TrEMBL record:
Source organism per UniProt: Peptostreptococcus equinus
InterPro entries per record: CPE0013-like_sf, DUF1667
Protein name in UniProt: DUF1667 domain-containing protein
Length: 122
């Protein structure tokens, strides 16, 4: 593993330019303006994770798609596998915000939840 890595923080709109160096078993972060940036940088070096936002097809709803998101971060390397799994699903209206549409997707411990109400089509 390389001892130094540079990247831009994505935790908040400031977008700090971070430099992370590994010394022995500790990561030193420079360039962050908040504690969240330091935590993000260390996580990126150890095991990067992301939230996903997408849509699922809806049957019998006033819209054909419902926006969804993960309720917890998933490992970055699983993003494309999770997206393929989401694309296989279809749900039936009515749907409420916060409904769990896919539980524990691919064993990640993260659920796919609805982020919009979709009423049944009249």
């Amino acid at each position: 593993m390389e001892n130094k890595k540079e990247f831009t923080c994505i935790v908040c709109p400031v977008g700090c330019h971070l430099t992370v160096t590994k010394e022995e078993n500790q990561y030193n972060v420079n360039g962050n303006t908040c504690k969240r940036g330091e935590i993000y940088a260390q996580q990126e070096m150890i095991a990067p994770k992301r939230n996903i936002a997408s849509t699922i097809r809806v049957e019998d709803g006033f819209l054909n798609l419902v926006p969804v998101k993960t309720d917890k971060q998933i490992p970055k390397e699983m993003i494309f596998d999770v997206m393929k799994e989401i694309n296989k699903y279809r749900v039936t209206a009515p749907i409420k915000v916060g409904d769990i549409l896919i539980e524990n997707i691919l064993g990640t411990g993260s659920n796919i939840v609805a982020t919009r109400n979709i009423a049944k089509n009249n």
